[in-house]
Amino acid sequence: MSKYRIAWLPGDGIGVEVMEATRIVLDALGLDADYVHGDIGWDFWCKEGDALPQRTIDLLGKVHAAMFGAITSKPVKAAEAELVPALRGKGLVYRSPIVRMRQLFDLYVCLRPCKGYAGNPLNYKEKIDLVVFRENTEDLYAGVEFAPLPKELIDTLKKLSKPFGVFADLPPDQYALSCKINTKKGSERIVRAAFEFAKLHGRKKVTIVHKANVVRATDGLFLEEAKKVAAEFPGIEWDDANIDAIGMWLLKNPFNYDVLVAPNLYGDIISDLCAQMVGGLGFGCSGNIGKKLGVFEPTHGSAPKHAGLYKANPIATILAAKMMLDWLGEKDMGARVEAATAAVIAEGKVRTYDMGGSSKTLDMGRAIADKLPKAGKR
Ligand code: NAI
Ligand code: MG
Fold first, then answer.
1. Ligand 1: which of 272, 276, 302 to mutate, judged by most atoms within 8 Å of the beta carbon?
2. Which residue has the least CA distance to atom 6 on ligand 1?
3. Is 301 in the pocket of ligand 1 (CB under 6 A)?
4. Nearest ligand to the C-alpha of residue 355?
5. Helix then strand then coil, % of the chain, to nearest 5
6. Residue 235 Cα, ligand 1 centroid: separation in angstroms?
7. How far apart are CA 239 and CA 230, in angstroms?
8. Bridge partners of residue 110, in order along the sequence
9. For ligand 1, atom 38, which residue shows the shortest CA distance?
10. How far, in Å, is the centroid of ligand 1 from the Cα of 240?
């Protein structure tokens, strides 16, 4: 029996291709693992009415970690129209498989390292090295939404909230409500994860991102919990910043920042901003991490217009595999994958189209596999 059982979830479009390239690297590395394929994505929605079938959920309950490519998703009505006829009109509602995985397995940390590798023509500035911790289960993504609002809710809000008065007399189809829900537990544990990471990796500073001066209830709670956690880590400097301001400051001087931690939506935004500074979608890797399971993925989607062409950049997925190796405790292997990736980028001979080259997805996988340093040597 192998040491690890890894769920292998390629999904749709270029997800399949970047995962194939990543397997070339993992196989060359010799990780002692069984990779177990899991069905996920658009085909399973169309044919079975579920983009994350129960058998895949069962598989995820029995593995050490998962690698996930990308999926296609579409708005509710378009999704319904693509169901096989037998499943239409049954009230099936499309739900994003990645959001469901995060909720089902309580993958509360979304970890997004954004490191600029030397020689990448897409670097915004050289030597950027930021790490974003995004809360992954609550906030505006809690899914508590109303459009239109039910009458009982309108009546209650009228009674309890003065600011609601300006909306109260609008026709109910003229507005919608999405609830931002942040818990003490959710805030505390993501901030703790960020500080523990900073401590473990010798990072100097943690920046807490919020908008507590305006969004007082939820972001106020987040900031209060964050400050309590910060006080437990006297060795690590911290500051806080408003979400709008941090966008400007990060662009102006990314070197003033190190580790950033934020509630779900703000974390989503700053992680895309930071990823773009180090090469964009072909480089943005991410880990969805809980107490028992980690699901590692590139942040990009299925890019339908490139599907089947084998031209997408697999580096984001290969770096996600590096994150998985680190999380499994295989630090030497993780470091070897990173060293090989950095070497291929620095050499500049193999470049996919987004980097200004014409190399194919699998060429990049092979080039990185060929550059893997020997075990223990890097
Ligand atoms: P996308 O990320 O799939 O692609 C946008 C564009 O970015 C592509 O057309 C391509 O030009 C570029 N790109 C993306 N990945 C690249 C790579 N590895 N190498 C080089 N260039 C790359 O976003 P889009 O087009 O908005 O969404 C396509 C589908 O993917 C949609 O159905 C969307 O819902 C879904 N999606 C899924 C995600 C996931 O599985 N986690 C995340 C984002 C979108
Ligand atoms: Mg995003």
1. 302
2. 303
3. yes
4. 1
5. 45, 20, 35
6. 40
7. 9
8. 134, 288
9. 301
10. 31
Residue of the nearest CA to atom 1 in ligand 1? 301
CATH class (in words) of the domain with range 1-119+278-378: alpha beta
User: Reduced to 3 states, what is the DSSP secondary structure of residue 61?
Assistant: coil
**Which ligand neighbours the alpha carbon of 300 most closely?**
1
Phi, psi at 123, each rounded to 5° = -60, 135
Whether the CB of 328 sits within 6 Å of ligand 1: no
* Identical topology for domains 1-119+278-378 and 182-277: no
CATH no. of 182-277? 3.40.50.2300
**Structural domain spans, the chain:** 1-119+278-378, 145-178, 182-277
Phi-psi region of 272 (alpha: psi -120 to 50; beta: other; left: phi over 0): alpha
pTM exceeding the 0.85 threshold for the entire prediction: yes
CA dihedral (135, 136, 137, 138) positive or negative: positive
Nearest Cα residue to atom 28 of ligand 1: 303
Distance of alpha carbon 122 from alpha carbon 355, whole angstroms: 6
pLDDT in tens, the chain (378 residues): 899 999 999 999 999 999 999 999 999 999 999 999 999 999 999 999 999 999 999 999 999 999 999 999 998 889 999 999 999 989 898 988 998 999 999 999 999 999 999 999 999 999 999 999 999 999 998 889 999 999 999 999 999 999 999 999 999 999 999 999 999 999 999 999 999 999 999 999 999 999 999 999 999 999 999 999 999 999 999 999 999 999 999 999 999 999 999 999 999 999 999 999 999 999 999 999 999 999 999 999 999 999 999 999 999 999 999 999 999 999 999 999 999 999 999 999 999 999 999 999 999 999 999 999 988 765
Query: Nearest ligand to the C-alpha of residue 320?
Result: 1
